[in-house]
Amino acid sequence: FDYKSFGLLDEYRKAFESNSFRGVVCHMKQTLESISTMFGNNDKINDKLFYLPLAYDSPVKQIKQTNREKVVLTFTNSFGGQKNNFPLRGGMECLLAYKELYESGYTNLYLNLTGEVKLEAELLQWFHNCDNVKIYEPNITRHERKMLTEETIHVILKETDIFLIPACRIHSMSVVKSLCYGNIVLGSNGWGFNEFLDEQFQCSGQEKS
Fold first, then answer.
1. I want to staple 118 with a disulfide (CB 3.0 to 4.6 A). Which of 18, 44, 83, 180 is the partner?
2. Which of 157, 80, 49, 170 is nearest to 112 (CA)?
3. Model pTM?
4. What's the pLDDT tens digit per position in 48-61?
């Protein structure tokens, strides 16, 4: 992205430098660094950039112990997501991998699915027919969007062992919330994940040469 050709960059620079502009709070270090770079490491603007780590007050008092006979995976197209989020969050990769594992004999793996799932009808029917897959339908509408209640989300994350989100970029609240529930989070090597996950939990779709 050639940000220097962005037509409003000079207007934003003036706005950021104005005395009435107090600052920007970022919960991603890389966002702060990107803004600084975009404005040429301008000292006046840099003084208005603040980093505040994202946090979540988990209601969980005791983390679930993993039972090898029933390992629960969860993929969510965000808890109020729409179909176009599905590929961006690595939905196809997660579901195809689960299907292959299950059909290879790993019947101790269970899967929670939430949000709209964008799959071909035959493949979607496989997940509906699989006894180890639980599909959560939206049970509340907020701002004209169908979503899950916080109570339902709490139940899902509390029973989850591994949270799957091999997305093209970080979805920070999903990651932080899942970590606070004691979930193992499998992300990707996409933008931002390295601020939350160690390298061994950043899946890559590229083969090593």
1. 83
2. 157
3. 0.86
4. 999 999 988 888 88
